[in-house]
Amino acid sequence: MPGGRPLLRGPGAEPRLRHRFPGFRAGRSRVTAYQRDRTAWASEQARLLRARRLPEIDAANVAREIEGLAAEDVPVLRERIRILLTALLRWAYQPDLRSTALASTMAAQRWRIEAVLKDSASLRPLVADLVVEAYPEAKRLAVLESGLFDESFPEGLPFLPHEVLDFDFRPDPFGERENGA
């Protein structure tokens, strides 16, 4: 009996716990429908919304899910931009290894970025900042993928943010910047 209190475990503990904590049942925890099966919970919440049975809706978790959906697009957009920047760096600084696969990667990432921005137009003002944020990691990946030294790539972003998203832009730091070449 530490501290002079009887332990609440062992034989006979459940009745004592039930007495001290109404609603307690040994071996059971209060797991909500949201915690048990989010897919079933979401379907039920959608049904309740359509039926306009607002008092029955799990508002706190519905709000959490909506906020989560909104927050998902920023990391997706940042990742697409990072992949695109890595391909642009490799295109610009490995001219002998330019390929249709690299050009395809640039086009595919631009299409995916545009798709995210079409679905979430409010993210468009963030693109320039995301391009700048993603550059250091894109540079590190370009070093790993290309086998070139870190010094082979500029310390700062060598492209303008609007150029990064331009489907016709393919950089050429050794000459003039190409458009559509």
From TrEMBL:
Pfam families per UniProt: DUF29
Q: Which domain of life is it from?
A: Bacteria
Q: Entry's InterPro entries? A: DUF29
Which PANTHER family does UniProt cross-reference here? Answer: SLR1203 PROTEIN-RELATED
Instruction: Please give the name of this protein.
Output: DUF29 domain-containing protein
Record the organism.
Propylenella binzhouense
Q: Source taxonomy lineage?
A: Bacteria, Pseudomonadati, Pseudomonadota, Alphaproteobacteria, Hyphomicrobiales
